[in-house]
Inverse folding.
């Protein structure tokens, strides 16, 4: 079995003093059971294990304490029976002095085993089951990094493993744990190889052992000879020349196979899997004895301990226990190293535990490992390049690292450095080269992160520019369309005006003729008007006899037609939003003058009628007035209802944009107010008349209608806000605060709707209309107020949308910073774009409304001042709402202000945290944060007082 | 108990083999050469060396003080001593004291420290100084005492420091110099007529060269440097000499003449091996050595100067950073070596 194996040489390498004889003289001994064990959840490469126990649990030896969390992770088991005393963050043995969640077990000394799962017939077991077994028993690489073994044994589908390499080189000075393992437990190693053979089905297996451990080589060869049946493939032991770092995975592969692991590949790509002897032994223990990885052999050496040797140590044993057992002289202890002197790292204290990768504890005195000499200038002697096993040029890399020329360092293959320390070892100028290389690697990684981040930012910026340009183009197109529409409308209007002029002389009176020239919609409206006119006045005017009142009638209807036309033109102009405030006011004045003319004509007609029926002239006068008013009222009502219906269908169809809808809604409400004005006039007229019965009969029905309208409006508002809330909730981009604010709003709207409905029901059931004014207050505010309310609402929505957009932006930034995967970031970005769009839409809507409110107010200011005295009834209605509305509006504003200031404060705080982490100067930021905090507190206080005031 | 926190590796061989050790080895390796020089050319060499060392240490200390560097720490590295020693070996044994003073001071103050100091100087300081002296004082730099005719120690001392009138008859040109200025004679005539080319003189030069070779082999066995640069230089020089002597043996000197006279061996084992100013990788150093050898032959055969090591080395010093970019070794796991510098991204 011991025929010579062809070996290859590696470049470079060094021959440090071995210093192995101090610790390899005595056999492996067992450490007395420690009182406490400390088991960090992060002992391996990959994600930390996930706890499966809690404080106070009694655990048995071998019981699982934490399970693998994700593919690259490992589970953790109780090294002995005992109680879990605490689970908290503790420092772990790590080169950077990191902390990790650590389970503290108080041992009970009973060593009670849990039930063990043993696979004796592993040669006939499914490899997948064996892999799962290895994974469940927490096996990780025991040589160095602690990579989860099951992962390494799961090669990619297209990789067929033909060579299994077992690493028993142990090239680091001082360490002898693998040597002792091979010497004393060779059978375990060979059994482990047999298990691996079942999993990987290799053609051959080579165990590489440095030729300074010939005892181990012999023990292994003997064991192989004793196990012919369980090894269906060739297993050889290669005694390789002693040279550091022949135990590096890549180096050992090169020595044993002559192949180099290509840059960026793993050994499995060459059909090679490499495992440490300790790992192999742990696998055999797990499979054949059912013992998870709960202990390992650790070398304790160094001149600060008197009893050097190898110890079977439970994972989690405090190093101070281990050192105390070996007779440490703490006064002499100068440098405490975990691992070997070439690649191990220093520990800051002795109260750290032994972990799965702790192959050696080196307690050195100052004489043994003195302070490093002061570094001199590099003389480029090239000794480092001769020693480098990766065939790098460390002197050049050092040069680039020092001057932070990271691109050059990368070009000179910095990332092929395995940090073995051979260059530092030989450097005559005592330059800590590896330290410089670690610095450069970290710097390059940081730069790459920053580069990725800036690329993302650039992409986002460009996308934004594109979007803005597109939006600008769209806006431009819309503007143009509107201008065209306005021009068309104007042309039409002029044409109609001309037509009206030409129509003034002839005596054709029916409005249908006029309507036939308009489009279908107008025709429909006109038809409706004509219908209503022909029905109701006809029935009303059956009584007057055939006195010649026709001229009056014609004049009246003409005036009316002119008035209606002007009104329609005004509406159209308003709809397009093209006309200025002054123009609208002018037109409105025109409309009102036409209206007046119409009313005059009507009055004349009435007079004529009165003159006809002489006797009841005085008594009939009011009733005729009432009739006329009734007609006007019913006409406006018909128009209003129709508009309302059109609006509802449009809304239901969902085809129109939000802007168009609001415009329609405003028109509807305008018509409503028109109708109500008319109705109020009618009521006033009725009040003035002695016949109270008419009022008694008509008022409830009118009220019911108004209430119905109010109720349906409230319902629509409520449903809309509900939908918006649901959407934002589903979207998930809005914060909790905003959601709750939205919810409140929804609830408020719901209660409004319910109130309105209750009022309506009351009115319907014929109850006293006592609650009417309340319902009216909310349902029919003055036109400017409907606008104002809407404006306010839109404003709030806008600010909310803005906050949402900001939030989304923040989320995107954070995701970028945390380096989340691209799809996530993209999702967030689309969410951001959506919210930005919503905001911009709302904002434009807001601006439009603002304009309208202003325009309305101006018009009203001029219009209301005249008919004020004549209309006392609506006046009271109009006056009340502002008094009640003001505080709520204020409160809303305050709420928005508070939440905004809070968001600003939080953002600043986050920034401060980041700055503190980065170690920047934070004085300025701290000031900003405190300022933002006071702003928020003030806003909050104002909000709460306003709320209290409103509630009281 | 405070534990030392430090990154790996924790072992360092260089506690025993620091820069000082390397310099000491170089100094030791020059001993055979110094002995041979003294044997053939008298006490002048040793007197020059001692004077040069004093000047070098004084200049080094002065500059370190001006640069506010720890004087003791830097003097210990021995680099100034090596520079002074090599320069003293290169200039004629009977050169006047001020020549040594100017050369060493220029080497340390200008060529070493003003170019960046230890490890940063792009040009070999000893060769910069030698070139300066050769250009500025050609007569003094080319007058070598004939073998076995050197005055006594005190006579030499007085001569060097100008305390006694010069003895003209005893000095002559070096063999290379003589060879250079003998264009119209065939080699045979030349070797018979010129005192500098007599067999005794040549014998002395060959002996000195062998002594330097011995020192170089010592340094190679102590792994102070690799074989690449010296072998490159000697190899290319030999090849050049062989080609031309085969072409016309009457005009061009033989390979052994080129290898064993002048500063060839001193240059091959003590000058081109200066780690700071040569290329970095072994491959680069081989290229560097070859370049030096070729230039030496070209300047010797066709140039105006009798010896050419200094100029050849300085010219190749210029090229060293460029050579570095194209002589990277192939790193483990890579199919081929990288060439040139990283491409700029934008």
């Amino acid at each position: 079995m011991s025929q010579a194996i062809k070996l290859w040489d590696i470049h470079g390498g060094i021959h440090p003093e071995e210093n192995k004889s101090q610790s390899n003289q005595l056999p492996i001994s067992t450490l007395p059971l420690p009182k406490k064990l400390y088991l960090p959840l992060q002992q391996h490469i990959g994600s930390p294990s996930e706890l499966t126990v809690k404080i106070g649990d009694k655990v048995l030896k071998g019981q699982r304490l934490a399970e693998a969390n994700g593919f690259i992770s490992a589970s953790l088991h109780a090294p002995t029976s005992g109680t879990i005393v605490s689970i908290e963050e503790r420092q772990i043995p790590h080169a950077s002095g990191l902390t990790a969640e650590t389970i503290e077990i108080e041992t009970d000394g009973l060593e009670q085993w849990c039930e063990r799962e043993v696979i004796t017939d592993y040669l006939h077991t499914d490899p997948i089951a064996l892999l799962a077994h290895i994974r469940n028993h927490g096996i990780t690489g025991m040589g160095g990094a602690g990579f989860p073994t099951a992962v390494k044994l799961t090669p990619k589908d297209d990789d067929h493993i033909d060579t299994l390499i077992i690493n028993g080189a142990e090239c680091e000075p001082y360490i002898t744990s693998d040597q002792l393992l091979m010497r004393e437990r060779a059978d375990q190693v060979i059994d482990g190889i047999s298990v691996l053979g079942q999993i990987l089905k290799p053609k051959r297996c080579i165990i590489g052992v440095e030729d300074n451990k010939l005892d181990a080589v012999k023990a292994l060869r003997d064991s192989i000879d004793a196990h012919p049946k369980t090894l269906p493939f060739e297993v050889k032991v290669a005694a390789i020349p002693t040279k550091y770092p022949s135990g590096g995975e890549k180096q050992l592969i090169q020595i044993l196979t002559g192949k180099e692991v290509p840059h960026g590949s793993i050994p499995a790509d060459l059909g090679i899997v490499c495992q440490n002897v300790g790992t192999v032994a742990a696998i055999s223990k797990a499979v054949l004895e059912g013992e998870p990885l709960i202990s390992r052999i650790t070398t304790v050496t160094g001149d600060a301990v008197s009893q050097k040797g190898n110890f079977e140590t439970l994972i989690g044993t405090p190093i101070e226990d281990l050192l105390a057992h070996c007779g440490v002289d703490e006064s002499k202890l100068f440098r405490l190293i975990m691992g070997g002197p070439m690649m191990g790292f220093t520990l800051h204290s002795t109260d750290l535990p032994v972990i799965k990768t702790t192959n050696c504890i080196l307690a050195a005195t100052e004489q043994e490992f003195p302070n490093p000499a002061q570094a001199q200038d590099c003389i480029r002697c090239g000794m480092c390049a001769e020693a480098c096993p990766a065939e790098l040029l460390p002197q050049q890399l050092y040069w680039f690292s020092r001057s932070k020329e990271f691109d050059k360092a990368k070009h000179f293959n910095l990332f092929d450095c395995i940090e073995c320390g051979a260059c530092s070892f030989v450097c005559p100028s005592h330059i800590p080269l590896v330290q410089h290389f670690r610095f450069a690697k970290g710097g390059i990684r940081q730069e790459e992160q920053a580069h990725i981040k800036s690329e993302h930012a650039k992409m986002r910026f460009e996308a934004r520019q594109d979007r803005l340009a597109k939006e600008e183009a769209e806006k431009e197109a819309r503007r143009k369309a509107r201008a065209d529409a306005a021009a068309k409308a104007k042309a039409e209007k002029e044409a109609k005006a001309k037509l009206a002029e030409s129509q003034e002389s002839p005596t054709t009176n029916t409005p249908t003729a006029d309507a036939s020239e308009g489009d279908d919609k107008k025709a429909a409206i006109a038809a409706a008007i004509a219908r209503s006119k022909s029905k109701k006045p006809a029935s009303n005017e059956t009584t007057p006899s055939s006195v010649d009142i026709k001229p009056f009638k014609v004049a009246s209807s003409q005036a009316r037609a002119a008035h209606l036309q002007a009104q329609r033109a005004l509406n159209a102009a308003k709809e397009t939003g093209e006309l200025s405030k002054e123009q609208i006011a002018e037109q409105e004045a025109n409309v009102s003058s036409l209206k007046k003319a119409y009313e005059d004509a009507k009055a004349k007609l009435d007079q004529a009628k009165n003159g006809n029926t002489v006797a009841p002239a005085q008594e009939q006068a009011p009733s005729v007035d009432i009739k006329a008013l009734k007609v006007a009222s019913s006409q406006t009502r018909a128009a209003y209802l129709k508009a309302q219906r059109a609006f509802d269908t449009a809304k239901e169809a969902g085809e129109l944009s939000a802007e168009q809808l609001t415009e329609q809604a405003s028109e509807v409400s305008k018509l409503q107010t028109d109708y109500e004005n008319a109705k109020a006039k009618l009521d006033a007229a009725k009040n003035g008349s002695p016949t109270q019965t008419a009022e008694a009969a008509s008022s409830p029905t009118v009220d019911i209608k108004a209430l119905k309208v109010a109720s349906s409006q409230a319902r629509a508002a409520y449903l809309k806000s509900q939908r918006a809330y649901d959407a934002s909730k589903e979207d998930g981009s809005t914060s909790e605060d905003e959601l709750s604010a939205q919810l409140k709003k929804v609830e408020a709207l719901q209660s409004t709707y319910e109130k309105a409905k209750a009022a309506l029901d009351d009115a319907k059931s014929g109850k006293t209309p006592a609650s009417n004014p309340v319902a009216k207050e909310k349902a029919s505010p003055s036109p400017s107020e409907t606008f104002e309310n809407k404006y306010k609402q839109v404003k709030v929505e806008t600010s909310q949308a803005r906050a949402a957009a900001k939030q989304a932006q923040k989320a995107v930034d954070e995701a970028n910073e945390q380096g989340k995967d691209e799809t996530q970031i993209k999702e967030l970005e689309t969410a951001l774009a959506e919210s930005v769009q919503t905001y911009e839409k709302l904002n434009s809507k807001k601006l439009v409304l603002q304009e309208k409110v202003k325009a309305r107010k101006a018009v009203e200011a001029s219009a209301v001042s005249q008919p004020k005295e004549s209309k006392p009834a609506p006046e009271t209605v109009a006056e009340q709402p502002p008094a009640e509305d003001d505080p709520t509006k204020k409160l809303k504003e305050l709420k928005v202000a508070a939440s905004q200031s809070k968001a600003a404060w939080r953002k600043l705080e986050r920034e401060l945290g980041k700055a503190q982490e980065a170690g920047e100067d934070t004085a300025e930021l701290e000031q900003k944060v405190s300022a933002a905090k006071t702003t928020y507190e003030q806003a909050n206080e104002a909000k709460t007082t306003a709320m209290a005031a409103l509630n009281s | 108990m405070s534990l030392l926190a430090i990154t790996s590796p924790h072992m360092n061989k260089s506690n025993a083999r620091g820069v000082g050790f390397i310099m000491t080895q170089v100094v030791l390796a020059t001993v055979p050469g110094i002995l041979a020089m003294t044997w053939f050319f008298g006490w002048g060499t040793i007197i020059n060396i001692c004077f040069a060392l004093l000047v070098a240490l004084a200049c080094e200390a002065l500059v370190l003080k001006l640069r506010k560097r720890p004087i003791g720490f830097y003097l210990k590295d021995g680099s100034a001593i090596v520079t002074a020693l090599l320069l003293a070996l290169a200039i004629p044994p009977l050169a006047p004291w001020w020549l040594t003073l100017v050369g060493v001071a220029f080497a340390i103050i200008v060529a070493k420290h003003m170019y960046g100091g230890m490890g940063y100087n792009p040009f070999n300081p000893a060769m910069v100084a030698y070139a300066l002296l050769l250009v500025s004082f050609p007569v003094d730099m080319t007058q070598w005492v004939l073998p076995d005719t050197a005055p006594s120690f005190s006579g030499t001392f007085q001569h060097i420091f100008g305390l006694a009138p010069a003895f003209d008859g005893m000095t002559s040109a070096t063999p290379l110099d003589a060879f250079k200025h003998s264009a119209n004679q065939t080699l045979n005539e030349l070797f018979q007529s010129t005192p500098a080319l007599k067999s005794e003189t040549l014998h002395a030069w060959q002996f000195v060269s062998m002594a330097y070779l011995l020192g170089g082999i010592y340094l190679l066995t102590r792994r102070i440097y690799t074989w690449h640069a010296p072998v490159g230089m000697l190899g290319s020089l030999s090849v050049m000499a062989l080609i031309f002597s085969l072409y016309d043996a009457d005009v061009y000197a033989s390979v052994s003449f080129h290898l064993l006279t002048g500063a060839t061996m001193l240059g091959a084992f003590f000058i081109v091996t200066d780690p700071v100013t040569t290329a970095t990788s072994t491959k680069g150093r081989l290229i560097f050595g070859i370049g030096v050898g070729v230039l030496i032959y070209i300047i010797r055969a066709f140039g105006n100067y009798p010896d050419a090591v200094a100029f050849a080395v300085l010219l190749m010093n210029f090229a060293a950073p460029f050579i570095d970019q194209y002589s990277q070794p192939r790193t483990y796991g890579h199919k081929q070596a990288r060439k040139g510098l990283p491409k700029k991204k934008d």
Notes: The first strand of chain B starts at residue 144 and ends at 145. The beta strands of chain B are 144-145, 171-172. The two ends of chain B are 54 Å apart (CA to CA).
